Amino acid sequence: MNYSDLVKQINAKRSMLCVGLDSDLNKIPPHLLKLDDPIFEFNKVIIDSTANYSVAFKPNLAFYESLGLEGWKSLEKTISYINERYPEIFTIADAKRGDIGNTSKMYAKAFFDKLNFDAVTVAPYMGKDSISPFLEYENKWVIVLALTSNQGAFDFQFMKDEYTGKQLFEQVLESSSQWGTKENMMYVVGATKAEMLKEIRQIVPEHFLLVPGIGAQGGDLDAVVENGATKDKGLIINSSRGIIYADKTEKFALISELKAMELQNEMAKYF
Amino acid sequence: MNYSDLVKQINAKRSMLCVGLDSDLNKIPPHLLKLDDPIFEFNKVIIDSTANYSVAFKPNLAFYESLGLEGWKSLEKTISYINERYPEIFTIADAKRGDIGNTSKMYAKAFFDKLNFDAVTVAPYMGKDSISPFLEYENKWVIVLALTSNQGAFDFQFMKDEYTGKQLFEQVLESSSQWGTKENMMYVVGATKAEMLKEIRQIVPEHFLLVPGIGAQGGDLDAVVENGATKDKGLIINSSRGIIYADKTEKFALISELKAMELQNEMAKYF
After folding, report:
1. Measured between alpha carbons, how far is A212 from A239 in angstroms, rounded to an integer?
2. Any CB–CB contact under 8 A between B121 and chain A?
3. What is the band of B137 on the pLDDT scale with cuts at 50, 70, 90?
4. Is it the case that residue B216 has pLDDT exceeding 50?
5. Exposure winner among A115, A117, A190, A222, fewest CB in 10 A?
């Protein structure tokens, strides 16, 4: 998907919502467990009930890999289902990969050629040649971890460079934005750091940001949009648990639809 | 596998050799391509012909994921084959994973419970809670990226902290060595940075180091061992292409055995 189609979808739906498919056998409605492929059946329902309100779907690979071969099958079926039924929706493999150049090339092949995702998340520790192979695909995207939403973000990401005075995440933004463009590169910036979005926008004024950590209640949404939005919005805001695990009964489709709609309604006021 | 069994194996074989199973359909001997599962058949031959000379096998996940479901099947068969036939050999999932705590837990489940690897490589960008879940498994290991062997290592890993004067990779070593012990944590340190091993040994005097980047000719082996060895050796030295792609004919088993033997012979002189 290219930049302008993504922006078009965002404006048409008046939504920046990404639904995180962190699908876990221990958390999905128990009545699904008797089906042949409970994870795929769960995803299908969630996708169908939230597609009108969201612009992106983001399976986190860890949940699928933890089930081995069966999990990989569920993932393949899920991405095919989205691509066939909702080709306008942006798809993100939340994989946090990254390796030496030749090996990152194989990861790009895995997620872009084989699975046909639009985007993949990548950790920046190994530098340019770990990220560049993902940029060689037309209309595909790499989403680089900049400032994550977890406690461990404070361990290394705020380290301040002796010479430039810049913190590691700022250095990552500054360097990597030279390797790609706003047409093929985005950044992960946690919503728990919403106050920092202003500073981040000085370094990457136009790139899309993928923002995890927004609750179903939309608590930080104002701060995120106020500090982080561009003229094209430039934000993809993820919610996982608040939507997909909002209910565990036979009515879960309806409840997750309501939760997605609530968030989209919150977002619509910024359009 | 625990620390003392690993050391025992190293001493018994007088080897620190790890064979990297970066198995690629475009590089394996072409006569294998007509078989049902060429990647697994290739791995089986490489494993059998090098097991006497090596202490570890390390499939890099990217190569398997790039083949989709078929690749994941080949990986499962490969790790099962090693565990059944060579239970004394240390197995490393070179996956370079890492996510927020709850998600890293799922990766630990994938590689330790589901696939039964001894160790998994992890990128440190997301800090403590991305690494800790791997440490909760008894006799399993996390191998943290410290100083990688690629050009991109220079982009961020050498950034110097304003307050402590330490470089990022030193900070990673120092912090993370507080989270685990020499019994459940190792570090990736590229052989291309052999001269830095002395400095690294001041921070982590006893942890095992996984050292990629040694050629078949054993060029840097002296420097690596001289600067990096502990009393228990404390080194797992990887070679991939130099061994597994040394020959593409029907004789590739013999040639890869010879290459592994050559490297083991080089290593034996340090015992």
Report:
1. 7
2. no
3. very high
4. no
5. A222
Domains of chain A: 3-268 (3.20.20.70)
Could you give the CA distance from residue A80 to residue A70 in angstroms, rounded to a whole number? Answer: 16
Separation CA A18–CA A9 (nearest Å): 12
CA–CA gap between residue B187 and residue B179 (Å, rounded): 13
Cα gap B48→B51, rounded to integer Å: 6
* Beta bridge mates, A92: A119
Residues 36-55 of B with CB under 8 A from A: none
CA-CA distance, A96 to B104, in Å (whole number)?
11
Structure token pair of residue A162: 């002796």
3-state secondary structure of A36: coil
Kindly tell me the burial class for residue B262, based on how many C-beta atoms sit within 10 Å of its own C-beta (0-12, 13-18, 19 or more).
middle
* Nearest by Cα to B175 from B132, B140, B211, B215: B132
Between the CA of residue A51 and those of A21, A22, A43, A44, A225, what are the distances in Å?
Answer: 12, 16, 11, 10, 22
Residues linked to residue B119 through DSSP beta bridges, in sequence order: B92, B141
Q: State how far the Cα of B176 lies from the Cα of B146, in Å rounded to an integer.
A: 10
Contact of A178 with chain B, judged by CB distance below 8 Å, is answered with no
Packing angle between helix A68-85 and helix B69-85, nearest 10 degrees? 170
CA A75/CA A180 separation, integer angstroms = 28
pLDDT at A216: 46
Residue numbers of chain A with a pLDDT score lower than 50:
216-218
Q: Give the separation between CA B161 and CA B158, rounded to whole angstroms.
A: 9
Contact between A36 and A17 under an 8 Å Cβ cutoff? The reply is: no
Start-to-end Cα distance in chain B:
22
Q: What is the mean pLDDT of residues B169-189?
A: 98
**Residue A220 in tokens:** 């930080």
CA distance B211 to B201: 13
Average pLDDT for residues B232-244, to the nearest whole number? 96
Q: Which residues does residue B31 pair with via DSSP β-bridges, in sequence order?
A: none
Q: Please answer whether residues A239 and A216 qualify as being in contact, where contact means their C-beta atoms are separated by less than 8 angstroms.
A: yes
Residue B215 has pLDDT above 80, yes or no: no
Which chain A residues touch B78 with a CB distance below 8 Å?
none
Cβ distance A127 to B66 less than 8 Å, yes or no, reads no
Q: Is A150 on the interface with B (CB under 8 A)?
A: yes
